[in-house]
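Usage

Read records sequentially. Each one opens with the input sequence:
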Amino acid sequence: MFFQLLLVTIINYLYYFELYSLAMKTAGLYLLLNLLLTIFGEVLAVLAGPSWTLPPGISITLSVIMASVYGYANLEEKARNMDRIILTR
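and closes with the structure output:
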């Protein structure tokens, strides 16, 4: 739950600083990773049997952590321009 709220906060900051494309890339990364890990877990359960399934919620947890790291790295990279964005309003 913490990382989901962190991701929402990072995306809100990206939108606030008018970095719309980075916010969309971060959200898209979360969705893509979640989809791929869910499919991988289902395929693993079908091919290897029920004893080799992924733990419940691991796809959401891993994808939200990776998307948060990606979004925060981009936010820190663009931090040099934040004063210009804030003061030009």
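Summary fields computed downstream for this record:
- The CA atoms of residues 21 and 78 lie 12 Å apart.
- The helical segments are 2-16, 20-48, 58-77, 82-87.
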